[in-house]
Amino acid sequence: MVAVHGRERVWKVFGVVIILLWWKTEGLVKLPENATVPAVFVLGDSIMDTGNNNNPTTMDRCNYRPYGKDFEGGIPTGRFSNGKVPSDLIVEELGIKELLPAYLDPNLQSQDLLTGVSFASGGTGYDPLTPKLAAVISLPDQLELLRQCKEKLKALVGEERSDYMDELGQFL
Q1: One GO CC annotation, please (predicted)?
Q2: 63: how many CB neighbours lie within 10 A of its CB?
């Protein structure tokens, strides 16, 4: 009985510490009033993947239940979460858009590129063998997709506007 109460107390203290840390750090990084971020481009793994693994060739997919159960309408989207992932929260907090689309989403519109996309792929890693085993998008391949995206942006809005987005856009 004593061990149970000891564990409960540890968890309560841990919970209070987490809440205090969240409260203390929430909103520490704010943009200046006159600053804007036109676009966010994200590379990474499952933490930032918004649906790039939604193809039948990879083993690391999450476009099925229970993923997405807390998402709008309870629909699995390919996010490795039951709701939004950090890349969604970042673009939402910056006021760019509510959700960051996956670059490989077949429904992606050219206009979506203007405000950013995610190239992240769940299951990838720094080790070049990791993405090969899981048939996911490696970091070098994500960089290649980013290069292709920049070319599409140049064709869409011209080189000057594309360079402006490179300067002020956020690359995560």
Answers
A1: extracellular region
A2: 15
Q: Which among 46, 81, 87, 162 is annotated as catalytic?
A: 46
Percentages of the chain per state (helix, strand, coil), in multiples of 5? 45, 5, 50
Write down the residue that tokens 């200046």 correspond to: 32
Name the strand (E) or helix (H) holding 171.
Answer: strand 170-171
Quick one: CA dihedral 79, 81, 83, 87, positive or negative?
negative
Give the residue from 141, 108, 99 showing the smallest Cα distance to 124: 141
Structure tokens at 79: 């996010």
Structure-block tokens of residue 119: 């190239």
pLDDT tens column, 103-125:
999 999 999 999 999 999 999 98
* Strand partners of residue 41: 171
Strand partners, 118: 42, 102
Taking only the tens place, the pLDDT of each residue in 31-49 is 566 567 889 999 999 999 9
pTM equals 0.78
Look up 46 and say whether it is catalytic: yes
